Amino acid sequence: MLRTMITATNTMGQLQSKLDTISNNIANSNTHGYKTKESTFNELLYQQFNNDKLDPAQRQTPVGIRYGAGAKIGQIQTNHKQGSLQKTDRDLDFAFNKPKQYFNVLMPNGENGTQTVYTRQGDFYVSPLNNGTVMVVNADGYPVADATGQAITLPENVTGFAIREGGTLEATYANGDVIRTDLAVTEFQKPQVMEHISGTYVGLPNNLAELGFTEAEVLMDMQGANRQQIGLQSGMLEMSNVDLSKEMTDLIQTQRSYQFNARSVTLADQMLGLINGIR
Fold first, then answer.
1. How far is the C-alpha of 41 from the C-alpha of 227, rounded, in Å?
2. What is the distance between the alpha carbons of residues 125 and 144, in angstroms, rounded to a whole number?
3. pLDDT tens profile 195-224
4. Which long-range contacts (CB under 8 A, 24 or more apart) does 157-162 make?
5. The pTM is what?
6. Vertex 142, ends 29 and 105: CA angle to 5°?
7. Residue 160 phi, psi (nearest 5)
């Protein structure tokens, strides 16, 4: 009976993690650029009791009793399917129309340091600086990087923005001046290696070398001739690719599995009570 309880509680803990993943997907169903997370389960180690070797019946599993120890989440992977595009008619809203391409954002990291993170959330703004210039930032106030990896700064009093072929950001002024800046765009070659940081941000894991990969194998900076492969549209934002009907179905199935395992614990406890009550 104790083993039954341990097996059920092992699975319940992993089912709770899947419920958390589904809840996070549903909560971000309206978050621009969000990519849904999918949990897959693996079986834990089991014991094989070969107590009936003379059984002549044809079966697909080995003869005897196979006693499992529950299940665990094997992997939580990101679904990089293209989300639908929402028209906003705002000149600093940009959306990718090709999968696995990401903006580069400079996120603060420690004292006066920054790290490059990646996102498909393309609602940008201008933030004024103290020297008569403005900086292009995202909704969280983090600087958007140009093709050289630096923050994009422009003279103030910009009258409009547009995105041109090859991911070039074009800023126009009232006097007719035009300033063009190449946005930093990165395409993921092995997206499942990337690590979720927070919100819609992903980055390279700290143990990349231990995983057996190099940065060049995982990321491809869209430079030179590759810039012609960048798919960007202005005046639009990419919606999340969360399928609410699928998430609700998975939620019901996971809750039922959780209830089944909880019932197993209850039944095992009742049987232990009966055994202990025998005099």
1. 39
2. 10
3. 989 889 999 998 998 989 999 999 999 998
4. 158/126, 158/134, 160/91, 161/91, 161/92, 161/234, 162/91, 162/234
5. 0.80
6. 75
7. -170, 160
What single string gives the DSSP state of each residue in 201-229?
EEE--TTTTTTT--HHHHEEE--GGGGGG
Ordered DSSP codes for 3-30: HHHHHHHHHHHHHHHHHHHHHHHHHTTT
Q: Tens digit of pLDDT for each residue in 236-261? A: 999 999 999 999 999 999 999 888 88
Q: CA angle at residue 112 from 106 to 116, to 5 degrees?
A: 20
- How do residues 127-157 score in pLDDT, each as one tens digit? 999 888 999 999 999 999 999 999 999 999 9
Q: Which residues contact 22 (CB under 8 A, 6 or more apart)?
A: 39, 247, 250, 251, 254
Query: What token pair was written down for 32?
Result: 């621009």
Whole-angstrom distance, CA of residue 206 vs CA of residue 18: 25
Dihedral of alpha carbons 89, 90, 91, 94, sign: negative
Pick from 142, 147, 135: nearest CA to 121 = 142
